[in-house]
Amino acid sequence: MRTMTAWRVDRPGPIGGRPLRMASVPVPEPGPGEVLVRVRACAVCRTDLHLAEGDLPPHRPGAVPGHEVVGEVEQLGGDDTGDLRVGDRVGVAWLRHTCGTCRYCRSGAENLCPFSCYTGWDADGGLAEHCVAPAAYVYRMPPRYDDVHAAPLLCAGIIGFRALRRADLPPGGRLGLYGFGASAHLTAQVAMAQGATVHVLTRSVEAQRLALSLGAASAGAAADAPPEPLDAAILFAPVGDLVPVALSALDRGGTLAVAGIHLTDIPPLRYADHLFQERTLRSVTANTRQDGHDFLAFAQDHPLRVTVTPYPLSGVDRALADLAADRVEGAAVMTLPEQ
């Protein structure tokens, strides 16, 4: 029996208590319609931190997190794997399975499927040397990016892309981004490529500098008012206190999209100050596969500067601790040497 090294959520709790443990586990076998992927890189997402700390309830004991996986197909699970072949370079993302028959799936909103399953939550993910994924839910990765710089595209990029769509930013509009980590630094570039003016609001001075270097029109503290009213805003920071702040910054008819899977409690909203004049508050729930294909095609055609902080496989717990303390510039990415 082949074994591999993997990080498992042992006992969810504060990251300082080391809720993840590195373990030797069997290399998984792909079932029908699945592929075994040899992991080359896996970005470490804030969702992984929420899973480790218990903000998101565990769906299975000892799960291996990680859902921004770039690797090589090593084994096919039967014949029902489409056009994938051994040796293909693929990406494994957050959305792992949908039923395909409910009204949400049939209407193109598979991200709302009540039977959806997720990589690193319902099934083991990519903070390991291998992972298994359904062939119908993996992506071919844009060749413009190497493995380390491609990994953050699979969640930070895709979710930010959907959040931008949900924010209903008009052509040439003014966009505010609250929080400026892995997802926001890619979303800002997409929006600017589409002609938007981007204002960044974040507590991290280093992130403010990164935002300005990428072309943001301004960068200030999270609770500051932007220099002009916003047509749309996206909240990436998992901080409910920023919801009224962002709503107050919107111009008439503006939309705030909340991009995270977890958010602390939102304080009371005052209708006249926060919602009147047809301001809209929206959530963002995962993504559809079409979002993923559309974004990866955009990323191939429009070169994005993907800022990464690399960590070895042995340093995943340190990556999560750095993420919790806002010490990561851009995206944290676990890298594996060529095998």
UniProtKB/TrEMBL annotation:
Its EC number is 1.1.1.1. InterPro entries: ADH-like_C, ADH-like_N, ADH_Zn_typ-2, ER, GroES-like_sf, NAD(P)-bd_dom_sf. Pfam families: ADH_N, ADH_zinc_N. Keywords: Metal-binding, NAD, Oxidoreductase, Zinc. Residues 17-334 form the Enoyl reductase (ER) domain. It catalyses: a primary alcohol + NAD(+) = an aldehyde + NADH + H(+); a secondary alcohol + NAD(+) = a ketone + NADH + H(+). One of its GO terms (cellular component) is cytoplasm. It comes from the Bacteria. One of its GO terms (molecular function) is metal ion binding. Its cofactor is Zn(2+). The keyword Magnesium does not apply. It is an enzyme of class 1 (oxidoreductase). Belongs to the zinc-containing alcohol dehydrogenase family. This is Probable alcohol dehydrogenase AdhA. The lineage of its organism: Bacteria, Bacillati, Actinomycetota, Actinomycetes, Micromonosporales.
